[in-house]
């Protein structure tokens, strides 16, 4: 567990990651429990990086989230218990007060099994999972995970049991696995090579990527490249972009343009921001897995893509 004490003892943040059991690894990126303790009326804020879909079960929180940074005005989720974010291509600004949260990250295969809707319809979605029909199958977990009196071990066991016993079937499972295994190769640059590695025609790759991953194959590779840079930066002792830029960027101006596309700000602007939650998550990921992010289809030494 990573514990963060804020300056002048004004609050604390505790986050603990639980590696998914082996049989759930293809479906879940991670399971985590987060507790934020702040003085009444105080909040902290951060930016979610591009990531796969996440389910966050809140207990006793009044949260506020903004959509992509270029949008104006926050989206208030108020007392919603289940906050859902779809596959993300853009940064998401969020702000929260004291909160207790169970979080579950869904791999593309997990999205296909547990949600079933086309991932492309939920790209950059952030909303109340209890009012969105696509997430109705997840709602039984709310009563278990959102209880303020719940025992952490019992809640974890119930969460694992729910996903393990879920009856969902995935017709495209083998091909989703093949795409995912190919996609995390850091040397993959060209779509033709992507299709060859996944052992399918480019048109099939395009259709399945949009349906189950949310993005075109070309955009997926761009997104992978950026997330590798972001996580390397978050874990670097010296926050220096030059040391963490992926070698597949042609030059710094190419990297800066891509960063603006995905994060809605310049690298220097992002570096200057505090990252109380993302910093703690990166440290806990490294403690648990020894690498920034775990990916299905990658060996422990290769787990450097995004969750």
From TrEMBL:
Organism in which the protein naturally occurs: Qipengyuania gaetbuli
Span of domain HTH araC/xylS-type: 173-273
Record-given protein name: Helix-turn-helix domain-containing protein
Keyword terms of this UniProt record: DNA-binding, Transcription, Transcription regulation
SMART domains in the cross-refs: HTH_ARAC
PROSITE patterns listed in its UniProt record: HTH_ARAC_FAMILY_2
GO molecular function, one term: sequence-specific DNA binding
């Amino acid at each position: 567990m990573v514990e963060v004490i804020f300056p002048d003892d004004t609050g604390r943040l505790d986050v603990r990651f639980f590696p998914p059991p082996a049989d759930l690894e293809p479906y879940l990126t991670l399971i985590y429990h987060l507790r934020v303790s702040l003085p009444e009326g105080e909040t902290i804020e951060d930016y979610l990086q591009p990531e796969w879909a996440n389910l966050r079960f809140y207990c006793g929180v009044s949260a506020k989230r903004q959509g992509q940074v270029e949008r104006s005005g926050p989206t208030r989720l108020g007392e919603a218990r289940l906050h859902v974010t779809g596959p993300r291509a853009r940064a998401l600004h969020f702000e929260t007060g004291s909160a207790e949260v169970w979080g579950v990250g869904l791999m593309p295969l997990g999205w296909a099994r547990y949600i079933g809707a086309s991932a492309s319809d939920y790209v950059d979605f952030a909303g109340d999972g209890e009012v969105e029909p696509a997430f109705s199958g997840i709602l039984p977990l709310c009563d278990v995970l959102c209880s303020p009196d719940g025992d952490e071990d019992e809640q974890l066991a119930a969460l694992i049991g729910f996903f393990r016993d879920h009856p969902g079937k995935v017709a495209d499972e083998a091909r989703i696995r093949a795409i995912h295994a190919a996609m995390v190769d850091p040397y993959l640059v060209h779509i033709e090579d992507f299709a060859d590695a996944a052992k399918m025609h480019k048109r099939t790759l395009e259709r399945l990527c949009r349906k189950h991953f949310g993005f075109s194959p070309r955009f997926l590779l761009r997104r992978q490249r950026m997330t590798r840079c972001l996580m390397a930066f978050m874990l670097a002792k010296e926050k220096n972009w030059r040391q963490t830029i992926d070698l597949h960027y042609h030059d710094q101006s190419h990297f800066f343009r891509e960063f603006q596309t995905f994060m809605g700000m310049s690298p220097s602007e992002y570096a200057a921001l505090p990252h109380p939650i993302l910093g703690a998550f990166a440290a806990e990921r490294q403690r648990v897995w020894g690498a920034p992010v775990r990916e299905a289809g990658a060996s422990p030494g290769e787990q450097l893509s995004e969750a």
